[in-house]
Structure formats: C-alpha cells, structure tokens
Amino acid sequence: MQVKNLEQSVPELFQVANKKYLQSEQAIEIIKQNIGVIPVANTAEYRVIWLDVGDFPYREWKFRYATQNLIEKQELGDCFLANRLLFTHYLISKK
Predict the structure, then answer these.
(1) How far apart are CA 31 and CA 27, in angstroms?
(2) Which of 2, 3, 12, 5 is nearest to 64 (CA)?
(3) Which residue, among 83, 90, 91, has the nearest Cα to 21 in the 3D structure?
(4) Helix or strand or coil: residue 79?
(5) Are strands 37-42 and 79-83 parallel, antiparallel or unpaired?
(6) Reduced to 3 states, what is the DSSP secondary structure of residue 90?
(7) In the structure, what pLDDT confidence band is assigned to residue 1 with cuts at 50, 70 and 90?
(8) What's the predicted TM-score (pTM) here?
(9) Which helix (H) or strand (E) holds 80?
(10) How far from the centroid of its chain's Cα atoms is residue 5's Cα?
(11) Nearest Cα to Cα of residue 48 among 9, 90, 11
C-alpha cells in the first residue's frame, strides 16, 4: 500500500494556494488577524502553504488526515502561499 502525501490527498489545497502568493508583509497581517492560520505544507519551490483551520481539532500524529478531513467537511478555507522565511519568523514569534 502506497501512502499518499498531502499534495496527493488534497490537490485542491495546493492548486488554490499556488494562485495566491503573498509577500511576507501581507501574510504576516493575515496571520496576526486570524488565530487559526497555520503552516500546513512545504512546496518544492521553497514556499509554505498556510491554511486557516479555525478551531478544527488537530492531532499532530495524523496531520495529513486531519487536513484532508477539514477540507472535506468544512471546505477549503482561506489559504495562501508565502516565502519559507516567513515560517521561520512565525516560529520565532511563537516562543
């Protein structure tokens, strides 16, 4: 049995996010305004996909399945693509 990666499981997430690349300043404002925006995937282009998951209960050990279930149950929320350096900024700000 071959395990699917997140891009294979929910290709619409990647398709929608790839159409909405944000500069770091724009992305930071969205993240600050929406507590449910989290990084959910890396792309081959060294970018990070961010998704507004609201208050969906995530469990790290089944992250891929939780993301797939969220999109299937609640539809694809606001998502965007940003430079990977923004992810580093995000991690530092959470400390």
Answers:
(1) 6
(2) 5
(3) 83
(4) strand
(5) unpaired
(6) helix
(7) low
(8) 0.75
(9) strand 79-83
(10) 14
(11) 90
CA neighbor of 27 nearest in space, from 94, 93, 91, 87: 87
Residue of 66, 73, 88 whose CA lies nearest to 9: 66
**Structure token digits, residue 56:** 């969906």
Closest by alpha carbon to 50, among 30, 72, 71?
30
Residue range 18-70, pLDDT digits in tens: 899 999 889 988 988 988 888 888 888 888 899 888 887 776 667 778 888 88
Q: How many CB atoms lie within 10 A of CB 75?
A: 8
- Measured in whole angstroms, how far is the alpha carbon of residue 76 from the centre of its chain? 11
In the block, which residue shows the tokens 């770091």?
24
Contact 84, 47 (CB under 8 A): yes
Three-state DSSP state, 62: helix
Q: How far is CA 65 from CA 49, 59, 71, 91, in A?
A: 16, 9, 10, 23
Domain spans of the chain, in order of start? 6-93
